[in-house]
Design goal:
By secondary structure, the protein is an all-alpha fold. It contains five helices and no strands. It holds the Pfam family DoxX_3.
Length: 122
């Protein structure tokens, strides 16, 4: 039961960030971060592409396909994304320097979700 709740919660985060914040542009700060890091010219399109990728991760989580790989990809993406953002766009982050702690908490939840996954019968 705990595993299922964690999976749905993680998928909801990825879906919200991807669809709401990036594809629909409900949080313009995300596009501003992309523009700061990758340049203004294609920031809108790149932000939408990142959002579509995040929606894909939400679908992957819900599919249950290769869950260990899915968790590894999530952890890697969150870690790399946060290092880049912290280095190049710290002033645009919602929680500023505390963003690192939020990212670490998310990574821990992803890890624990994988660890609580019921073993599949062989």
């Amino acid at each position: 039961m705990l595993h299922r709740v964690l999976r749905y919660a993680l998928a909801a985060v990825w879906l919200t960030m991807g669809l709401g914040c990036k594809v629909l542009g409900l949080v313009p700060r995300h596009r501003e971060i992309v523009a700061r890091i990758l340049g203004e010219e294609f920031a809108g399109l790149i932000t939408i592409a990142i959002g579509i990728g995040e929606i894909g991760i939400a679908a992957w989580i819900l599919s249950g396909f290769r869950p260990r790989l899915c968790a590894t990809v999530q952890i890697g993406l969150v870690a790399v994304m946060n290092v880049i953002e912290f280095t190049l766009a710290r002033d645009l982050l919602l929680f500023g320097a505390v963003n690192a702690a939020v990212a670490l908490a998310f990574i821990v939840i992803v890890y624990l979700t994988e660890r609580t996954r019921p073993c599949s019968p062989r």
